[in-house]
Write a structure and sequence with these properties.
With about 110 residues, the chain is an alpha/beta fold. The protein is built from six helices and four strands.
């Protein structure tokens, strides 16, 4: 790597930002933390801070990501943003994961 860059995540600030959003929009039912692509390459270790802040749903891009998160956060609702291959629907149902329906044929 030729660039000496890094990211420093202050989890307290992250939690407080979420709390501020919830104060500004208190009537929302869902506060979704989008953590696709390994939380945008920050790692799923940031998820506890999101939950502490008040996130009550997580969104990921794939079933693989959903299963990784499900293994660590058993009770957290998870939404997969991209449609999954329907051959894996039993895995989705067994793990209480929400999927995206992108067209009527897929739904049927």
């Amino acid at each position: 790597m030729y660039r000496k860059t890094f990211v420093n995540i202050d989890t307290t600030v992250l939690e407080n930002n979420i709390k501020d959003i919830k104060k500004k929009y208190p009537d929302y039912k869902y506060y979704i933390g989008v953590v696709k692509n390994d939380a945008y390459h920050h790692g799923i270790d940031v998820i506890p801070s999101l939950i502490e802040g008040g996130i009550n749903y997580l969104a990921v891009s794939s079933l693989d990501e959903a299963m990784e998160i499900r293994a660590k956060f058993e009770d957290m609702p998870i939404l997969i943003l991209e449609p999954i291959n329907l051959e894996f629907i039993k895995v989705v149902l067994d793990n209480d994961i929400t999927i995206t329906i992108d067209n009527l044929d897929y739904l049927n």
